[in-house]
Amino acid sequence: MADDADDAPPAPPKRSGGFMGTLINGLGIFVLTLVAVVIGGVINAKLHPLPDLQLDKDGRIKAIVPLVSAAHGEDSSGPKTTVYYAIDPPLVVNFEDASVVRFLQITMEIMAHDQKAIDSVQKNIPLIRNNLLLLMSNRNYQSMMSRDGKEKLRQEALTEVRAVQKKQGGPDVDDVLFTSFVVQ
Q: Is the N or C terminus of the chain more exposed, i.e. has fewer CB atoms within 10 Å?
């Protein structure tokens, strides 16, 4: 009996389908993956549509933010964009706190809804920087460490920028934003 098991012919090797079977399986997996990626892209585009873009006169691309319709009580004369101008380099001033010299570095951006206002700010930036430096060098350390103190300084900076714009005949800006505020 033990000899009968040894005499049995070996089972033929199992064939895997050869080259064509492997090629068809690989092609099927590729097609399924491609369909999944395309469907995912379509779903993403429906859930997160891109904003309308416009090329401005300087060659920069800006997103067009549509205004709320007139049904909500606002004028819909056309889309308005929010334009920002970074005051660069950052403003750095020193001040004294209990006989310790401290430094304040503020990076600011000016916000407007009119490119003409930003153009006017760029033209008047030396005067604006001068007035802002004088405004900020006259500060108390404790008042600048609180949120209310920073907000008060921001409002005063906005008032200074608007005063320069008015004096120089430029359009009004909407806001001044602190994008970096470092005290050492």
A: N
Q: How far apart are CA 162 and CA 170, in angstroms?
A: 9
Residue 99 pairs in a beta bridge with none
The conformation of residue 129, written as its DSSP 8-state character, comes to H
Each residue's pLDDT tens digit, 53-68: 777 777 777 766 654 4
Measured between alpha carbons, how far is 126 from 16 in angstroms, rounded to an integer?
Answer: 78
H-run or E-run covering 32: helix 18-47
Q: How many CB atoms lie within 10 A of CB 74?
A: 10
Q: How far is the first Cα of the chain from the last one, in angstroms, to the nearest whole number?
A: 95
Taking residue 25's Cβ as centre, other Cβ atoms within 10 Å add up to 11
Indicate the SS3 state at residue 168: helix
pTM: 0.56
From the CA atom positions of the chain, what is the Rg in Å? 33
